[in-house]
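Hi there,

I know you've been waiting on this one. I reran it after we fixed the sequence typo, so this is the corrected version. Both the input and the resulting structure follow.
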Amino acid sequence: MDITPSLHQELETRARRMLRARKLPSDPETMSLVNEAWLKMANANEPKLESRGEQLAYYATVLRSALLNLARHRTAARRGGGQAHVHIGDSGAQPGEDEADSQVLDVDEKLKKLQNHDAELARIVELRFFGGLTWNEVSEVVGKSPESVQSDWEFARMWLRGELADGRDV
């Protein structure tokens, strides 16, 4: 896959925007997601991703994986990370980090369930929620009009809201 500095910059910009929307901090650890996604894309044994839509769709999948890894890592670290030592007090988590990591993990779990019922709806959620793609970009990837994609997103979003234990919005 042809990974250029300009594509890396675009991925970084998209990641920062998506992280802000998910209320995750844009700290060095979090921004390492971009580098992780970029390296996975550069080393991918995927067929050549020629169109920008194919690249963005693949990026969304890679970023989802990286976000899940980070959320799992942070959650494990807050729970002791397998260490016997227990410290009562500040966990070191930034405000809202627990909730944001929990949301990422919860949405992923429910998204897997949705994929069993409707793979296209699940793909739209992945592209928007994890990849931060615009309506036009999602439209290009799934081959539907932006209006149809928005309608599908709203349906999937309401379904996910009902599935999430605390009724939080996606």
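Quick highlight: Residues 5-163 form one domain.

Best,
R. S.
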